[in-house]
Every structure is written in structure tokens, then in C-alpha cells.
Design goal:
The chain has 13 helices and 18 strands. It is globular.
């Protein structure tokens, strides 16, 4: 008998890669993958547990999917991922609707679990972790893929549960990453997005030294059209790394640097390893080494001890740096983290007010930043037709990451998804650019 499997993947791109590995292992073992949850015999919810809102979304999704046991074909409901890794015992007591649990450390056992639940036995032969990518079933568009270069985190920021959910930092061997990228290129992938909780720590655990620059250079020489690096911890961004980013034209001139804050007191309380001055020097070095680089950051507001003055220090820093892209979130008091026990907790209404003020400032900065593109011609990766206007296609430049940044609207009649085209920018708004194909 063939069983239909549907999977809901929540949270970050790292979780998405785990979801794709599960789907691939299941497909390899003769399970049928479907996007129709009503028809699915098995539903898997790959959960996120990063902050309270993510936990709530995961629980709500599990409960929603459990309804398919009554209204659909669902026989087995499985929860996997970060929330399970941290709260497996509590969830098992509170959610009897769930038939199986797998965390971030054992999600690869999904075939054995389902074989046991549905067939009463299992004969699954587990591949080596470095071979998981061979079984991966990608759910992203054909022209882009995420490649996880490491798992876990050793930074121990005082607000973060990731080390408890994902374990200690563990780099994937360099040759395994290169082989995965080669296979993706053979499938027609044009953009490789390298991800880890802290990409700049890559190699320290297994090679004893910084290896990210070497990894990037070796991948660039594989003729990947675009390589994009995510989640660079600011204290570990070296001049050597920046020189590699500058040297290779196929490495996107894009840095994702979650600073979290810029006030020294708050940074110390967060357990970060840099000061506001360190961040200023880093940004200066980036702009000197890669003048055209786009910089994305993430900031947290309302951390315990964040007074109005300390928040103003963050606003001043953002005003001076003028990040191309900035995301923000309010501090979430997560149990079992040192920050949850700190004094001077900030009231929710003040957190929300500061979030609104920070994002209002970034809106002004973004509007001004977009003007620098007017009249310039940039290379754009075509992603599809615009749903709102048939005269336009949608694409991204190397300065815009998938899903989190703006897009380029391209006025054109006939373009192919995955095609690179030169676009002359004629207009812009807060997030997006508008242009036409450059006349040949």
C-alpha cells in the first residue's frame, strides 16, 4: 500500500532544509508526497520554537492539522523540529493528538517512525549525515536552494534557546558541502544560499581554524552563478572573509549581520562579543572593502535594562549606518534563558512603541537608500510573472535575498524563470525597485 505524506514546515530556512531531507528520505522509501492535507494519510508538522510567537504558531498548526483526522484521511500526525527538541515531554502530555515525536537531533528517523506506525515494522537503513543531501526533496523554486553548512550554535546569547534546541556547533565537512553544491548545479540551481546559525564560526570545531573564506572561494570556483551568505556573527567577520567576498564576482555583495543592538550595556547583557564601537569599525571596514555591498541586520528592542537612552543609542546607530535592510522584533522572555531572569524587564507596550519607532526610522532610510539605484543597470534573476500586473515580471538583484528583502519589477513581455537580465532602474518605493530591460 502507498501512503500519502504532507508536511507543514515552519520557521527558518534551516528548518526548511530539514523538512526537505525528511521528504526526500520518505520519497526514497516509496512514500508519496502530496501538498493536499485533506488527502494525506500522514501529516508532519516541522515546528519552530525560537520565540513565543513561533511556539504559538507551531501549537496552532498542530491543532489545525489534527482536525484532518476527522475531516480528511489522516491516520498519523507527527511533530518534529525545534519545539519538540525542547519540550517533547510536555507536548506529549498536552497534545494527545500527536502520534509521533522527532526533534532536531533525530528527525532523520522519520522513515523508521512511519514504517513502525503504519506497517508495524521497519527495515530502514540510515544514510550517513553527510549523505542526507542526496535524498533531499527541494521545495524551493528550481533556480534557488539553501545549503546548510553547519548545525547548532556555541554563542550562548542570553536570550536565545537555539543551543538547547539545535545543540552545539557542528560544521559539515567542506567536501560534503562542495558535493551538495555540485549536485544542485546539475539540477539547474542558479543561486546557492549558505546558512548556519553562525556562518562565521564555520570550521572552527572540526578544522581548528576559520574556514569560511576558504569554503566560499572553493564554491565560487565551482562556477555557481550566485552564492549568498547568511547569518554572519559580527564579532567574527574578518578582513580575510571580506576580501574573499570582494574578490569573486559570483559571490553576492550582500552581508546579513544580526547586530541585535548597538548600546554597550545591552550588548553585554545579551552576551554578545562586540561593542558599539566594534560595530562602527566593522561597518567602516565593509564599506571600504566592498563599497557596493548591501547590508541587512536584525535588531531586538525591549531587552531587559533597555532604558529610553539606551534605545536612543540604537536609533542613533541605525541613523548613521543606514542599513539597506533591517528587520526587528521585540524581546521575548523565554524560559530557561538567563535573560528571562534579568531585572528591569520592559513592559510590552513600551516594547511595541520602540519597535514601531525603529521600523518607522528604517522606512525613511529605505526610501532614501532606494534612490541611489535610479538610473543604474543591475543584473537581475527572474523569478516569475507579477500577479498584480501582467506587464511585469518579478526578479531579484544580488542585493536582495529571497523571502526577506524587496524585489525588482521588470517591465518585459517574455522572460524565463531563472534567467539573468540587465535591468535599468527607473522607480522605487520602500522595499522594491522598478525597471526595464536594458536595450542591447
Amino acid at each position: 500500500m502507498t501512503y500519502n505524506i504532507a508536511l507543514a514546515s515552519l520557521g527558518c530556512s534551516k528548518n526548511l532544509v530539514d523538512s526537505e531531507i525528511m521528504l526526500g528520505l520518505l520519497k526514497e522509501n516509496n512514500y508519496q508526497i502530496t501538498e493536499d492535507f485533506i488527502k494525506a494519510d500522514v501529516i508532519i508538522v516541522n515546528t519552530c520554537g525560537f520565540i513565543l510567537s513561533a511556539k504559538e504558531e507551531s501549537i496552532e498548526t498542530i491543532l489545525s492539522m489534527a482536525q484532518y483526522k476527522k475531516t480528511g484521511n489522516c491516520k498519523v500526525l507527527v511533530a518534529t523540529g525545534c519545539l519538540v527538541e525542547k519540550y517533547r515531554e510536555e507536548l506529549a502530555q498536552e497534545l494527545p493528538e500527536i502520534d509521533g515525536w522527532l526533534g532536531t537531533g533525530d528527525f532523520q528517523n522519520i522513515v523508521s517512525l512511519l514504517d513502525l506506525k503504519l506497517k508495524g515494522k521497519t527495515s530502514f537503513s540510515m544514510p550517513l549525515p553527510e549523505e542526507f543531501h542526496r535524498f533531499r526533496m527541494r521545495t524551493t523554486p528550481e533556480h534557488l536552494a539553501y545549503v546548510k553548512i553547519a548545525e547548532g550554535c556555541d554563542n550562548r546569547c542570553t536570550y536565545c534557546l537555539i543551543p538547547q534546541m539545535r545543540g552545539r556547533y557542528h560544521s559539515k565537512p567542506m567536501e560534503s558541502i562542495r558535493q551538495e553544491v555540485r549536485e544542485l548545479l546539475s539540477q539547474g540551481v542558479k543561486e546557492i544560499n549558505l546558512i548556519a546559525q553562525d556562518s562565521t564560526y564555520y570550521g572552527m570545531d572540526i578544522y581548528g581554524e576559520e574556514k569560511l573564506p576558504e569554503l566560499l572561494a572553493s564554491l565560487a570556483e565551482e562556477d555557481v552563478p550566485w552564492i549568498r551568505l547568511f547569518y554572519s556573527y559580527p564579532a567574527r567577520i574578518s578582513k580575510k572573509l571580506l576580501d574573499v567576498l570582494a574578490a569573486y564576482p559570483n559571490i553576492c555583495k550582500y552581508l546579513d549581520i544580526p547586530i541585535q543592538h548597538a548600546d554597550d550595556f545591552i550588548l553585554r547583557r545579551m552576551g554578545r562579543h562586540e561593542t558599539g564601537e566594534d560595530l562602527v569599525r566593522l561597518i567602516d571596514t565593509i564599506q571600504e572593502t566592498i563599497p557596493q555591498a548591501a547590508i541587512r541586520t536584525t535588531c531586538m528592542v525591549g531587552f531587559p535594562g533597555e532604558t529610553e537612552e539606551r534605545f536612543e543609542n540604537l536609533l542613533d546607530f541605525v541613523s548613521k549606518v543606514k542599513f539597506d535592510w533591517l528587520g526587528a522584533f521585540t524581546f521575548s522572555r523565554e524560559e530557561d534563558t538567563p535573560a528571562a531572569l534579568l531585572s528591569e524587564q520592559v513592559p510590552e507596550e513600551i516594547k511595541q512603541d520602540r519597535y514601531d519607532r525603529l521600523m518607522s526610522l528604517q522606512t525613511e532610510i529605505s526610501l532614501e537608500n532606494k534612490k541611489k539605484w535610479l538610473g543604474r543597470t543591475i543584473n537581475v534573476l527572474v523569478e516569475g510573472k507579477s500577479s498584480g500586473n501582467p506587464e511585469y515580471f518579478i526578479g531579484r538583484s544580488q542585493f536582495q535575498a529571497p523571502d526577506v528583502d524587496g524585489v525588482v519589477f521588470i517591465k518585459a513581455r517574455n522572460l524565463k524563470v531563472g534567467q539573468f537580465v540587465p535591468v535599468t532602474i527607473s522607480d522605487s518605493d520602500i522595499y522594491d525597485l522598478v525597471g526595464e530591460i536594458k536595450a542591447q
